[in-house]
Amino acid sequence: GILFFCFSVLKRAFSLHKSHSIKDMENTFQLVKNIIPPLTTKKHKGQDGRIGIVGGCQEYTGAPYFAAISALKVGADLSHVFCTREAAPVIKSYSPELIVHPVLDSPNAVHEVEKWLPRLHALVVGPGLGREDALLENVKGILEASKARAIPVVIDADGLWLIAQQPTLIQGYQKAVLTPNHVEFIRLSEAVLRDPVDSSDRRGAVLRLSQALGNVTVVQKGEQDVISDGEQVLECNLQGSNRRCGGQGDLLSGFLGVLVQWALHAGPEKTNGFSPLLVAAFGACSLTRQCNHQAFQKHGRSTTTSDMIAEIRPAFNRLFET
Ligand SMILES: *[C@@H]1O[C@H](CO)[C@@H](O)[C@H](O)[C@H]1NC(C)=O
Question: How far apart (Å, rounded) are the C-alpha atoms in residues 179 and 187?
Answer without folding.
Answer: 13
